[in-house]
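Reopening: structure tokens for the flavin-adenine dinucleotide complex, inputs below.
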Amino acid sequence: MTHDTDAIVIGAGAVGLACAFALVQRGFETIVLEKEKAIGQGVSSRNSEVIHGGLYYPTGSLKARLCVEGRRQLYAFLERRNIGHAKCGKLVVATEPHEIERLDAILDRARANGVEGMQRLSGAEARSLEPGLRAEAALLSPESGVMDAHGYMDALAGEISAHGGAIAVNTPFAGARPLKGGGFAIRTGGDHATEVTARHLVIAAGLGAQAVAGTIGTYPAEAIPPLHLGKGVYFTMTGRAPFSRLVYPLPIPGALGTHYRRDLGGQARFGPDLEFVDAEDYSVDPARGEAFYATIRRFWPDLPAGALVPDYAGIRPKLHGPGEPHPDWRIDGADRHGLKGLVTLFGIESPGLTGSLAIGEHVAGMLADGR
Ligand SMILES: Cc1cc2nc3c(=O)[nH]c(=O)nc-3n(C[C@H](O)[C@H](O)[C@H](O)COP(=O)(O)OP(=O)(O)OC[C@H]3O[C@@H](n4cnc5c(N)ncnc54)[C@H](O)[C@@H]3O)c2cc1C
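Re-run output (same inputs, fresh job):
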């Protein structure tokens, strides 16, 4: 049976674009459908733009494997295309003696995950790198960095076009039905509603993944995990950025903890915190700043009063609610939902930006293997 195109990817965020990039490189004629009027308007535009080392995630999990692999690929991609990034390194700090045991457990896990160059530092060694830091002990991750997420997504879009692929913005996915001879008929909404057939379908719709999967009539409801919205807000700071490296406290349940970064423009930014919310709302409540002062002063006691200014917010597409265990990403093939030629990505929260190129390779591999 012939189809209009080999593959359709729903969602033009970092992950959908990376999936399309991997597919066009394998010779799949690919179209990306995006409901917004431009690429990269979803979760990929509201994050920390940190290139993660891959320290924290359970060894062998998709997050651990695809973060470490994706990070290596990402640095090479950013270098080759001259996209803004800085391998500035990161310090994870224990600010109390009782936290040192947890710090050492992260070091063991980072090494088991294959993270290169990890070093254990005393408090004095950490302060010699970043005067002004308060730390009982620290881990140095030299492979961590910061990047220009939009520059990255623009470059991916350019690569997709250069390989003959297409990105249709203002084109919401409205539903799909599996075809008898294999593949899918995909309906789009918007001003130019139409139907197009494709042999393969990838759902990389971020916060919309569950809704998109739910519009495919034969998608088993029990294979669609519940979506929880994990909001995180950021504050920026007036005055000079205090540290050149990323500084992270120990992780909190469900997130990596409110951290410090100096972005590519030299601006100090702090965040994100974690609050489970019922609806998408990107406002930043200045009252959340109170908790930021307390958290930041644990590792930077000199944070001046009144220095923090509300910045922006992002929402994590979480697969767990408050107090529940933090699950792995879900990259579901036919073994999970029974629909051959379909891959659905659920819960692609951090480190999804870092891991995106490896996620793309993984998805293209699943489709090429017929899974
Ligand atoms: C606060 C926060 C901080 C983070 N920090 C980092 C970090 O520092 N480093 C890191 O590696 N990761 C980080 N992440 C994670 C990272 O941002 C995400 O994993 C990644 O951006 C997810 O990309 P995506 O393409 O899956 O989703 P999105 O970027 O949300 O893309 C999905 C796209 O699908 C589109 N879409 C949805 N429904 C439809 C439909 N029906 N039809 C057509 N299109 C549709 C949306 O408009 C959107 O453009 C962070 C996330 C958050 C929330």
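The chain has two domains: 5-46+150-226+326-368, 88-141+227-318. The mean pLDDT is 96. Marking as resolved unless the reporter disagrees.
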